[in-house]
Design a protein that fits this description.
Elements: E1 9-11, E2 20-26, E3 29-35, E4 37-38, H1 47-59, E5 65-69, E6 75-76, H2 78-93, E7 97-101, H3 104-123, H4 130-156, H5 167-177, H6 182-204, H7 213-251, H8 254-260, H9 265-302, H10 308-318, H11 323-348, H12 354-385
Helix pairs in contact: 4-9, 5-9, 6-7, 6-9, 7-9, 7-10, 7-11, 7-12, 9-10, 9-11, 11-12
Length: 389
């Protein structure tokens, strides 16, 4: 590059194949054209180009505005992208007004770098200014909402038969979330019914009303304890499993590989797992209700000397309508959605090391249980307000 501060054109004579710069100076405004071949395979060093850039601005300190122009027919790759990002940063430090005239693809790559740079800066920001706080709050709120919106869109794509979800994955997820959970659900539900019968008998015996143990156990299981206990069990068992599976896939860059092949992780991985929980959790709740009633029956027959037929008749009279059963099933559907979405969300947004993966799994369980308890309380408030008792 050669130039004269009083001239209009600045151009370095070089081979066409090598990268170069072409300056057009007009008073305090300059247009910088990128010429030559800016691909890595061409080889050569950018030291000369960099020296020309520095020399030009030293000779023309009165410049106030610069236009960076890249023609659409220019051959370029990441070599040009890295050079532009570096020089744009220098122009910012020089407080020069600059305008970009780049092809669309080049703008996308530079914007991608800028977005990552801003995100990294926000994550390491130590200040507690109001703007930084609001930005972090927006990021925290927007990410789960974007995830939920993407899940709803994927769910709506199933009737159109345009989903990438495989039926085999859905069946496998149902087996792991349903049949494989039967032993622990059986144990916890039976012991829950057993415990409620023991505790209730102590108080009811004072009023000579021990037979109402059947009513207590039945109503507590079908309306509250069955769905709640299954939800907590599945959050600790299946929700943590989903977070670990997807987090490990992200750690091994398997999610990036799926996106490279045009496969959407939301439909391919998240959708079958969440649908499996929506289907299997209500079925497990019905099973848990029956097992819990059997636990109360065991105490009533073996400890309190009730007959089996008498206990069953009292249980049937306690369930005056089907609403008691439906209320528990309604809760279980919502619990299944919570467990599936929280587990998959934590897995997909896990960190890039084993420590971050462990934190994501722990956070998935804690958040799932918390949301389940909050949702259960909201259901009871709504049922009471609507007099559905």
């Amino acid at each position: 590059m050669s130039g004269n501060a009083n001239g209009k054109m600045y151009h370095r004579q070089e081979q066409v194949s090598l990268p170069g710069l072409h300056f057009e100076l007009n008073s305090s405004e300059v247009t910088c054209h990128f010429v030559g071949d800016w691909r890595i395979v061409v080889g050569g060093s950018l030291r000369t180009v960099t020296n020309d850039w520095v020399t030009f601005f030293k000779q023309n300190s009165n410049i106030k505005r610069i236009v960076l122009k890249v023609d659409s027919d220019l051959n370029w790759d990441s070599r040009l992208v890295s050079f532009l990002i570096l020089k744009r940063t220098e122009l910012d430090m020089m407080e020069l007004v600059f305008v970009d005239d780049f092809p669309a693809k080049l703008n996308q790559l530079i914007s991608l770098h800028s977005a990552r740079e801003i995100q990294a800066k926000l994550s390491t920001e130590k200040g507690h200014t109001l703007s930084a706080l609001l930005t972090n709050v927006m990021l925290i709120v927007s990410r789960p909402l974007n995830f939920l919106g993407a899940w709803v869109i994927s769910l709506l794509s199933i009737p159109t038969l345009k989903t990438q979800m495989r039926i085999g994955d859905f069946i496998q997820a149902c087996r792991l979330a349903g049949a494989s959970a039967l032993p622990i659900v059986t144990l916890i539900s039976f012991l829950t019914g057993l415990t409620m019968a023991f505790v209730g008998s102590v108080q009811l015996e004072k009023f000579n009303a021990k037979i109402y143990i059947a009513d207590l156990v039945c109503l507590a299981m079908v309306r509250e304890m069955g769905a709640l206990m299954v939800g907590i069990i599945m959050a600790g068992r299946t929700g943590a499993s989903f977070a670990a599976e997807l987090g490990n896939m992200k750690l091994n860059e398997e999610l990036d590989a799926l996106r490279t092949f045009g496969i959407r992780p939301m439909e391919f991985l998240v959708l079958p797992r969440t649908l499996a929980l929506i289907v299997m959790v209500p079925m497990l709740v019905v099973y848990a209700d029956i097992v819990g009633v059997l636990g109360g029956l065991t105490v009533g027959v073996q400890i309190m000397d009730f007959s089996v037929s008498h206990y069953i008749e009292q249980t049937q009279s306690a369930v005056s309508g089907m609403w008691e059963v439906f209320s528990g099933l309604l809760k279980s559907v919502v619990f299944g959605v919570i467990i599936g979405l929280v587990g998959c969300y934590k897995g997909l947004h896990s960190g890039n090391d084993s420590t971050a993966l462990g934190k994501s799994v722990t956070s998935a369980v804690v958040m799932s249980v918390t949301f389940i308890v909050v949702a259960d309380a909201l259901f009871e408030v709504i049922f009471n307000a609507l007099e559905l008792r």
